[in-house]
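Protoporphyrinogen IX oxidase
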Amino acid sequence: MAYYWFKAFHLIGVVVWFAGLFYLVRLFVYHAEAYQEPEPARTILKKQYELMEKRLYNIITTPGMLVTVAMAIGLISTEPEILKSSWLHIKLGLVLLLIGYHHYCKRIMKQLAKDECKWTGQQFRALNEAPTIMLVLIVLLAVFKNNLPLDLTTWLIVALVIAMVASIQLYAKKRRKDKEKLAQSELQPELASTSVE
């Protein structure tokens, strides 16, 4: 029975942790883009994003990570022989990378708060794809274990994930260009009126 409790709360922890990681880096995107806003909007937005990032990291994302790791240890304690499985070694390696990513996000938060971060919104959008890729790999390993299929279906799923990531990046690029066009069209009448004067 302990195994099922550990597994249930492990899955809950994973969902909470990934939700926090996905939203946290999305906040970084908005935070970085706030620097392009005129004052006083820039200062107001920066303060709001800092507050949201801290709360998300401390109240949701980090507890989600801790529950995930604690329940994983509980799961392994119920079946210690699983530690001999090669798929688990790969999965644990990915989880360690994810924990590193989690702590790297904390570092970025501190840099953003001190106005020392040079990343653009577009770079943060790309960074936000890292946990998606790790999530897909971790889930595939957890489901298929040592029998991970490498047939046509698997490669189609990989292609689908890559296509999703590419479409998100293209959409972000389109939004940025549309915003630039709108800003230029708003400047045209102002430039025309100043040249007349």
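thats it. The CA atoms of residues 174 and 180 lie 10 Å apart. The helical segments are 2-34, 41-78, 86-113, 121-127, 130-144, 152-196. bye
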